Amino acid sequence: MISIRKYLDGPEAVAVTPAPETRNRRSTLEVAAVYLDAYRSALTDFGRCSVDVCASTGAPLENSLVRTSDGLASSRSADLVAASAAQVRACLKEWSHNTARHFQQKAAEVKQILLAMAQTTAAVTQRDQRCTDQLTSITTSLQRITSLDDISAMRRAIEHNAANLKASIDRMQVEGRAVLDQMQAKVAAFETKLQEAEDFAACDPLTHLRNRLYLEDQLAQRISAGSRFCVAILDIDGFKSVNDTHGHVLGDELLKHFAAELRSACRSSDIVGRWGGDEFLVLLDCGIDNAQAQIDRAVKWACGNYTVQGTEGPVKLTVGASVGLAEFAAPESMKELLDRADAAMYQNKRAGRPPTKIA
Which CATH number does the domain 212-351 belong to among 1.10.275.10, 3.30.70.270, 3.40.1390.10, 3.40.630.30? Predict the structure, then answer.
């Protein structure tokens, strides 16, 4: 029986076996191919899940695992598989450390917020205590006035305490305003940091479009509300050959350029995001006819000739995309909606028909 290592080393390493063992050899080759495909699929799925766990640290891991999977698709070398396994272990170790540091940093930021709230509460408490002491002192003085028989002395005492009361109230207002201003400044700073963190968590680090997690959340909200909307899935044609021919660096640059053109061609009300790899998703809050016209225009704008800077200089590329368009039809699920759009996109890719295909 042929070994998996011999299969991975290529057909030249496969020893000629007697005819009776042909079936066993074929079975081993099929098993090895299944294992390799499962390994590549696991790499891709793990990379996608790492983005769901932590977008900021998961994106670099996803890109690395996708590149490793693509490399294994073009070679069956046992040495390459072993090297990829070592590389994957190193990437996972780095990702775990980066993710731990990321969440430690977020925990520290939450601690800062809690400390600021505690300090503000303490400042307000101290101010209130001072005001209470001052009012108590004035009340005591006023009680003493009642025991005076001299009207002039009583008047002077009242005037003095009235002045003290006014000064205390003025001081309370000043201190209260200072504490309030300080608290508002801290709240504004924390709101800015929170908004930045939310924007970062919803952003694809390569293309700066919305990421898959954000898109899924927006889809879920619209489905839950029963809104009328459409989904378009775009897949760049022949993108793998660009990576294989010119390298992943140029491939990443092409994704950035295509994403920018797609975003500029869509309306401000449309949500444009990177679904994964070379797939993009556009969420349109309108019916199918309006969405069809909008996607046709956007694809026409985004597709065409590109000049992309690679490691060895500029490369001219002609970029096309296959598109699947589907309108939400209650009570279907998110998966059913996306499956319809995805099936339409692949039908469009196989048929080589105009840019869009209505599901």
Answer: 3.30.70.270
